[in-house]
Design goal:
The chain is α+β, with helices and mostly antiparallel strands. About 35% of the residues lie in helices and about 25% in strands. The strands form 2 sheets. A 3-stranded antiparallel sheet has the order 4-3-5, covered by helices on one side.
Length: about 70
């Protein structure tokens, strides 16, 4: 599945995403760039997996897929 965002300039940009299914139905977490992807993963972890320590940026980015 190709996941894209359209920039204000009309450019297509592939999103970074990961699918989480740990202890709940599968949820796709995405972001239009590294910072948004990391923030969205961290927000998901804080709200759904609050007992888990937050991984460092590099580890979150290693989970990212593009498509």
């Amino acid at each position: 599945m190709l996941v894209v965002a359209i920039t204000p300039q009309g450019e297509r940009r592939e999103l970074k995403y990961t699918d989480c299914a740990q202890g709940h139905s599968s949820v796709r977490i995405s972001g239009k760039d590294d910072n948004e992807f990391i923030a969205n993963v961290q927000a998901h972890l804080k709200s759904i997996h609050s007992s888990m320590p937050l991984p460092p940026r590099e580890q979150i980015l290693a989970m990212a897929k593009t498509g």
